[in-house]
Structure prediction request, 277 residues.
Amino acid sequence: MPELPEVEVLRRSLAPLVGERIERVEVHDRRLREPVDEDALRGLVGARVESLGRRAKYLRIHLRRDDWEEPRTLVVHLGMSGRLTLEPGDAPEEPHEHVVFRLASGRELRFRDPRRFGLIFAARRAGLDTDAHFVHLGLEPLSEEFSGEVLERVAERRRGPVKTFLMDAAVVVGLGNIYATEALFRAGIHPTRSVARISRRRWDRLADAIQEVLRAAIREGGTTLNDFSDGEGRSGYFQVSLSVYGREGDPCPRCGRTIRRIVQSNRSTFYCPGCQR
DNA sequence: CGTAGACCCTGCGCGC
DNA sequence: TGCGCGCAGGGTCTAC
Prediction:
C-alpha cells in the first residue's frame, strides 16, 4: 500500500501527535513481519512525542521521557496493508487492530494491518541508522545527494533491468511498484532495459522523473488504490494522475498507443511501448 | 558477490 | 449465489 509519498503524507498528517504522552499500550496480536516485542512497547508508557521522522518507508516517532538516559524511537512500517490512525478514544475497534496506543488527551494511535506484512518496534534513537532495519538502505530520493550521476555510479556494479534496480532499497529507497513504474514512464525508459545500457543523459532524466513523481504524489496526498489514508483518515488523489500503473489496455496519455503489462520479479510492470525505449 | 524466485498473509473482484 | 483463482502499494530469505 504505501510507498515513500504515502508514508510522508502520513508523517505530516500526524503532526498533532507531537507533545502527546503515551498512557497505555495494548498489543492485540503480536504476529507481524517480526513478532511484536510487547514489553518493549509497554516500556514506552509515560513518554512524550517529540517529533516525527521518516527513513525510506519507515515512519519514526521520536520519544522522550524524563527518567530515560537517552531518547527512543517508535518505528512503524506499514507493509502492504498497514494503516496508522489517530482517533478519538471512543471510536469502535476495527478488525486487525494489532497495536493501540492510548494517549493522555484520550485519543488513540491505532495500528491496523490485515496482511501483517507491517512492522512495529522501539529502539534507542542514538545510532538508529546502524540498526539492522536501516543499515543497508540506499539513497533518499528527495535528498540533496540524489542525482543521475550517483544512480549511474551505483549501476556500474550491477546488472539486470532498470525497474528491478529502482525497486532495490539498497540502491534507492521509497520507490515501490507504482512510483518505479511511473518514473520510468516519465523518463521514457523501457522497464526491461538493462542498467548497463543507460546513457548519462537518461540517468539524469530518470533522477528528475523520480523526484517529480514523488513530489507530485505527496502534494496530492498520496495514492489511494484501495485503502490508503493518512493519520486522520483522508484519502489521497494521486491515483487519478497515474499515467500507466494499473492501466493495461488503456491508451497512453501521451501517444495513444495501448499500455502493456508484463511481470518482472513477480510484480506487475506497466509501460507504453511507444514512449518507453 | 549479485540476482531471480519463493514466500510471508488476508481480502477483493472477477469469471464460471 | 457461491466458489476458486489471480492479484495486490513490501521485504526477506534461499538457491543459483
Remarks:
- Residues 200-219 of chain A form the longest helix (20 residues).
- Residues 1-3, 6, 33, 57, 77-81, 115, 117-119, 167, 169, 176-179, 223, 225-228, 245, 267-268 of chain A lie near DNA strand C (CB under 10 Å from a C1').
- The helical segments of chain A are 4-13, 38-42, 148-155, 162-166, 177-187, 200-219.
- Strands of chain A lie at 22-27, 48-55, 58-64, 72-77, 83-87, 97-103, 108-112, 119-124, 260-264, 267-271.
